[in-house]
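Bug #77: duplicate submission created two jobs. Keeping one. Sequence:
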Amino acid sequence: MKRFFFALTMTVLLSGISHAQTHLLSGPLDPMQALTNPDNIGSGTGAIAGDYDDITNTLNYSISWSDLTSDVTNMHFHVGAPGVSGGVDLGIPGPWTSPYVGSGIVLSDDQESNLLAGNWYVNIHTGDFGGGEIRGQVNVTAVPEPNTAVATAFASLAVFGIIRRRRRS
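Kept job's structure:
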């Protein structure tokens, strides 16, 4: 009986070891999403890819683009749901060349909340479109930490093994 309670206690403890997650970022950028380019002028396209670690609050990303009507003059992460304009939440320092890579950026709690809620978009500003030529919503997909799942599964199997062994006796 002591083994049963020990295994049960370990299962409960191990299942709560960590709730860390890596979040994958992705999304296309185009003129149709840019509310400041209402006529969808240009054939510019782009994409964002990256990851976010919710334990270290660290953001890593790569933004690429091509076929813009003029040179990039600014880039930002804005707060806003799809189809909604919002203020700048995180600036992206120049110089801006494609692909642009940002790494090791530590987000504030508010920035993290906006990102994880799906309320961030990338806006690329150009000489022809000072308000933004192409835009792309940042899609966020959580990837559970594998160690927690493995530890929980192992502990659960141990409990079931002990229960099964006791029933045979």
